[in-house]
Amino acid sequence: MPEKEGSCVGLNEPRLVVRKFLARPQPEGVGAVVRRSIGRFELRYFDPFLVLDEFSVTAPAGFPDHPHRGFETVTYMLQGAVKHEDFEGHKGTIGTGDLQWMTAGRGIVHSEMPAAQGTQKGLQLWINLSSKYKMIEPRYQEVSSKDIAEATRDGIKVRVIAGEALGTKSAIYTRTPTMYLDFTLEPGAYLQQPIPGSWNAFVYVLDGEGIFGRSKSSLVNAHHLLLLGPGDGLEAWNKSSKLLRFILVGGEPLCEPLVQFGPFVMNTQEEIDRTVDDFENYTNGFEKARHWRSESGRTLGF
Ligand code: FJE
Ligand code: FE
């Protein structure tokens, strides 16, 4: 029998931090604020990731009616609640710790608005879809906080949004192979997390101060994005006296041409032109946008 699970884990080639960005607040949507790391000018694309926003929204601000095509949006709530409504009549509210994994595919038009008093905070990640899946039927996977798989070991807690960690697997289906882990490390904790060698991966720090990649590297605190270089996993340390919370996200790069026009992400300019036509003429997946308005009654356009 193997020994205690995990005892054989060891990384041969820990990934090092190759780039570091501080995500500063910027206006987005209607009166909302995002700290954008991936998707800003200096980091337009980190294949397959298009956008990572740490958002902060207080009513009446929000993200009223707007379309998406060609990718997935993953919304993970950190505080408060967001209500979404789409043009098919799909409605729901996600609160602290809840997850919405939306595959926009050929087209979604929806609104994402605050659903509670005070400030709603969370993360929204946009994951590109490969050319063969860009026009698939839209799909939602919604997971409430209590159903997100968690594991704890040696001062490490992980919430497994997608993929696997500490022997615990998520039930989320990722069309583009993706891992998404929410780690909390107690003071003194040390983490080794395998990551498939061919994947791109990053860390985004939410709280506290951590050391990533090499034990002697400098402390990294909240709102910083770290791009990881090649290797087979991540090593992280909490050498501080407070909790350290960060997400680790990895994905298999698509290695395809990319043409983006706001919330439409395709492979060629021609496909983008067709998408704008489809949106304006309510065709090829946007049929139901013709008569639909959310309760907010506003639009973000695109
Ligand atoms: C969008 C502008 C936007 N980050 N984080 C243009 F703001 C958006 C958009 C969001 C968004 C929504 C939430 Cl709930 C959280 C976000 C951008 O909705 F889609 C376009 N096209
Ligand atoms: Fe959206």
UniProtKB/TrEMBL annotation:
Keyword Amino-acid biosynthesis assigned to the entry: answer is no
What superkingdom heads the lineage? Eukaryota
The answer to keyword Membrane applying to this record is no
**Gene3D superfamilies named in the record:** Jelly Rolls
Subcellular location per the Swiss-Prot or TrEMBL entry: Nucleus
Cofactors, names only: Fe cation
Q: How is the cofactor bound?
A: Binds 1 Fe cation per subunit.
Q: Main localisation, per the record?
A: nucleus
Q: Which UniProt keywords apply?
A: Iron, Metal-binding, Nucleus
Residue ranges of domain Pirin N-terminal in the record: 34-127
Which of this chain's residues are annotated to bind Fe cation? H66, H68, H110, E112
CC terms in the record's Gene Ontology section = nucleus
Positions of the Pirin C-terminal domain: 180-284
Its Gene Ontology molecular function terms?
A: metal ion binding
Q: Which family does it belong to?
A: Belongs to the pirin family.
Q: What is this protein called?
A: Pirin-like protein
Q: Lineage of the native species?
A: Eukaryota, Viridiplantae, Streptophyta, Embryophyta, Tracheophyta
